Amino acid sequence: LILSIISGVDYLHSKGIIYRDLKPDNIIIAEDGHLKLTDFGLSKENADTEFTSNSFVGTYAYAAPEVLKNKPHGKSLDWYLLGALLYEFLVGVPPFWSQNQETMNENIINGAIKLPRSLSANA
């Protein structure tokens, strides 16, 4: 599952596209069993290795610290989002989740990632 997403993000990057909205809601399973990314509305095209943007993108629960701080971000944003997605697959909620958006934003910017003891050593 996660390898398919990695492959998809890598392919997009090879075509100069930054996806910028990787989250469970934007992943579907096709009839043939392959994963597909949907909703390219926040994507950026013609993004070479030097490209950066500082616009807010995505959903707060998956926002990267640089996005919340209005700092430039590039293709690395997609890899951060992949990590957040993997964390949610394993734990059931995004990594810095809080019902309160201000608390969640503070957690994303300054909080340490908390790994539940229930996760295996391999996870």
Layout of secondary structure:
Elements: H1 2-14, E1 27-29, E2 35-37, H2 65-68, H3 76-91, H4 101-110
Antiparallel strand pairs: 1-2
Structural class: mainly alpha
- The residue ranges in which pLDDT falls below 50 over 5 or more consecutive positions are none
Order of helices and strands: HEEHHH
Largest sheet, strands/sense/barrel: 2 strands, antiparallel
Strand order of the largest sheet: 1-2
Compute the CA-based radius of gyration: 15 Å
Question: Roughly what fraction of the amino acids lie in strands?
Answer: under 5%
Shape, per Cα inertia axes: globular
Helix run count: 4
User: What is the mean pLDDT?
Assistant: 90
Number of DSSP strand runs = 2
- The percent range for helix content is 25-40%
Query: Distance between termini?
Result: 14 Å
Structure description:
Strands 1-2 form a two-stranded antiparallel sheet. The two termini are 14 Å apart. With 123 residues, the chain is mainly α. A hairpin with a 5-residue loop joins strand 1 and strand 2.
Pick out its properties.
123 residues, mainly alpha, two-stranded antiparallel ribbon, 2 strands
Task: Give the gist of this structure.
With 123 residues, this protein is mainly α.
